[in-house]
Amino acid sequence: MRIALDTNILAYAEGIGDDERCNKAVSLIENLPSSLVLLPAQTLGELFRVLNKKAKRNSEEIRDAILNWADSFDIMDSTWSSFQAAFDLSTFHKLQIWDALILSVAAENRCRFLLSEDFQNGFTWKGVTIVNPFVRPLNPVFKSILSDIND
């Protein structure tokens, strides 16, 4: 089972946002086995922008942060077929194109979950279920996976 992380989860883990979400994101990432976690390359590009525009970090700090994420988890590249699927998601499900690309890359790489607060919690597409880890009740399947990991 594979789990993809959206940009907002990474941004919170970098300390961008309110303390509660930042602490939850760090705890969540620390409790997920790195072998299960995949990052769409798009999320790292978006994180670069967030760290630059919102956090006002300097380029070297941002580069180091991005490379640390890339060293910690496998990166999933965007392919032409993932872009084509993203165009369909954007057209028929009214998703923003870059969010749609993240979801389509997760599906292309056989992820079971995409952790994000930018999509509709519970939305499932091509076997990928969106889980907003900041809302309760937590998706029961994802909750049981977390329990199994922590046991």
Structure explained in plain terms:
By secondary structure, this protein is α/β, with parallel strands linked by helices. It has a single domain, classed as Rossmann fold (3-Layer(aba) Sandwich). The chain contains 7 helices and 6 strands; from the N terminus they run βααβααβααβββα. It has helices at residues 7-13, 19-31, 41-53, 59-72, 80-93, 97-108, 140-150, and strands spanning 3-5, 37-40, 74-76, 113-115, 124-125, 128-131. A 6-stranded mixed sheet has the order 3-2-1-4-6-5, sandwiched between helices. A hairpin with a 2-residue loop joins β5 (124-125) and β6 (128-131). α1 crosses α2 and α1 (7-13) packs across α3. The two termini are 17 Å apart. The model has no long low-confidence stretch (mean pLDDT 94).
Keywords:
151 residues, alpha/beta, 6-stranded mixed beta sheet, 56% helix, 13% strand
Element layout with pairings:
Layout: E1 3-5, H1 7-13, H2 19-31, E2 37-40, H3 41-53, H4 59-72, E3 74-76, H5 80-93, H6 97-108, E4 113-115, E5 124-125, E6 128-131, H7 140-150
Parallel strand pairs: 1-2, 1-4, 2-3, 4-6
Antiparallel strand pairs: 5-6
Helix pairs in contact: 1-2, 1-3, 3-4, 5-6
